[in-house]
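I'll show a record.
***
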Amino acid sequence: MLSRKQLENSIDYLKDQGFDAPEVGIVLGTGLGQLVDKIENQKVAHYNNIPSFPLATVEFHTGKLIYGDLGGKKVVVMQGRFHLYEGYDFIDITYPIRVMHGLGINNLLVSNAAGAINLDMKKGDLMLIDDHINLQGGSPLAFKGVSDFGERFTDMSAPYDATMNKHLQDVASDHGINLHTGVYASVVGPQLETRAEYRMLKIMGADAVGMSTVPEIIVANHLNLPVSAVSVLTDECDPDDLAPVNVPEIIEVAGKAEPKMVQLFQGVIERL
């Protein structure tokens, strides 16, 4: 159960650590940590020290909030996110979004690693998420008392902020970055999809598939917090030529593509 007291304790702790009025929140996905190197005047809070905060259990997620200066703005970066497949519930997964909002962020940027369903998109490409399909079997708003935190029946007709998406496209154009636009399907995991499941996702209209992001987007909309999200496409999900999953290769591809993601996020922050 989510309580205001929990949130207040987390927010007060972070304010005491110097997390003062951040303007932009950032969620970093699997293998996407290089952005942190660009942040100046850093203050760090490890998840295990923040009251009521979940703990990251995935080896590719380090588990800390980082506050500092990026692109002329105060930012707070979530290095290490939470997933259903780790055993967390939707309230745990989205708790940090509510905390960052309570600290004062006005915009949220989310990244993830995803598999390309649309085979016009290639391994190492980036995809701006224009819409999504929630296949995680639940909602972070489906709990008693949700109306105390925002509108229960949250509108999702346009979940991704048009202004920030336009900024991201403009930055991509300025830097010669090939930024696709598409639909992201979020599944539970941690197992990868079967050939039949990839075919199903394509029929449903998905361009990419991953195991995160959608719960955070739903809560951002619940909070009326403008949000945009970008996927690094780390593998090509061709059901007619499907190779066994290679997690080290996925992490390597994400790392190689990340400088483009850093340029995008830094550029859009400068324009906000």
Notes: The domain at 4-271 is CATH 3.40.50.1580 (Rossmann fold). The longest helix spans residues 247-271. The helical segments are 4-16, 90-103, 162-175, 195-204, 214-222, 247-271.
